[in-house]
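Hi U.,

Before I forget, here's the chain from the pilot set. I'm dumping it here mostly so it's searchable later in email.
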Amino acid sequence: MANKPRHMKPTDPEMEALKSSFEDGRNMAKAEISALEAKLDAAPWLFRMAGKIEATSFFKSQSEFFRLVMLKQVKDSKDYRDNYGMTWEEFCDSVKVDRRRIDEQLVDLRPFKAEFLADFANFSGVELHKIRYLGQAISKQSSSSPRLPSIPATSSKLPYT
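Structure:
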């Protein structure tokens, strides 16, 4: 058809070839649209799952860090010994934690703090340096560190174990 002069009409076989090419192009476009629609349909589920995974990671590191902070407060206060006549090992047994492992972790809480802050930054979308700045500002305002309240008990075992 490209070799014919402009005044000549295309033949039926040429028209059929054009129609076929056009139809092939239309089918390819439909297939691409269908594939994109499938991706769009899956996107909300996928992003919900990604959010749940990020939240779970944050809650896990938050829980681990806060657990260690509370155990450190208890260990440093020695309330388990003074108020209940327990050893540190007995206290750890009563709350179902491995004393040796906890003692190793309590030597340096910085890795757990770093993991918690990184997961918090990822979860919240707030940059890590801003979180640290906020923490420093709060620390300056608060001169005393919070303590856990003592748990009154009449026996040598702590309640709720």
